[in-house]
Design brief:
- The protein is an alpha/beta fold and 228 residues long.
- 40% of the residues lie in helices and 14% in strands.
- The protein is globular and about 45 Å long.
- The chain starts with 11 loop residues before the first strand and ends in an 8-residue tail after the last helix.
């Protein structure tokens, strides 16, 4: 893989999914979308999770930010590949909240995606789900050989010195289909507040959370789209 960033002139489908729940998938999905929207990127979210967390967030956003950057959220379940191809013709970036399990939604989404982001806590129990994700990625590349898969350490302790990232990198070294993103998303109240208020952390006052999301976006999109 020569670069992690996508050409902004090409429609990009980003799937946020994992085998385990409670690792911050909807948080990453909504915050990346808002970050890109503030930089003028035409972005939409596909909520393919039966819990509809992103869709409920969008309802709150319509009230909280009626004049803010628009982040359309479309709900679909089942085989979402055709829906994603259609959205990719109308938006520059489509971000999929695929839920916290192996599902038809996740597998059909990665079959047409450019990038799979796999949020994971830096714990043995969470990282032990990676063999299943490696299997999903390997199968998807049979249809979609250019799929990039990146694990993202999420909800890491805010006061940690960073040892958990080194341990995660060591554990992930055996999975040749998945790399580890450089950015770490910490467990900050700002993320919970943003989800409940229908906003993104880039719209709140927490500079640390804002910087984390901008850094994560900067790993995969052109730098001029996610400037500080």
């Amino acid at each position: 893989m020569t670069t992690r960033r996508q050409d902004k002139t090409t429609a990009t489908i980003v799937v946020v999914g994992a085998e385990k729940g409670g690792v911050g998938k909807s948080t990453l999905c909504t915050n990346l979308a808002v970050c890109l929207a503030h930089e003028g990127v035409d972005v939409a979210v596909l909520d393919a999770d039966s819990q509809a967390t992103a869709a409920k967030w969008a309802d709150r956003r319509a009230v909280a930010r009626p004049d803010g950057p628009s982040v359309p959220v479309i709900q679909r379940t089942g085989d979402v590949s055709a829906t994603l191809r259609d959205l990719a013709r109308r938006y520059a970036v489509v971000i999929v909240d695929a839920g916290g399990r192996d599902s038809r939604e996740l597998r059909s989404a990665v079959a047409v995606a450019n990038l799979l982001l796999i949020p994971t806590k830096a714990s043995q129990a969470d990282l032990e789900t990676m063999p299943k994700m490696q299997e999903i990625v390997t199968l998807a590349r049979g249809f979609n050989p250019d799929l990039i898969a990146q694990a993202v350490v999420s909800m890491a302790p805010a006061n940690s010195a960073g040892r958990e990232v080194a341990e995660a990198r060591e554990l992930l070294a055996e999975f040749d289909a998945i790399e580890l993103a450089d950015t770490v998303i910490r467990d900050r109240k700002a993320y919970r507040d943003a989800l409940l208020e229908g906003v993104g952390v880039v719209e709140l006052g927490n500079g640390q959370a804002r910087a984390e999301i901008q850094l994560l976006a900067g790993e995969f999109f052109d730098s001029d789209e996610v400037t500080a």
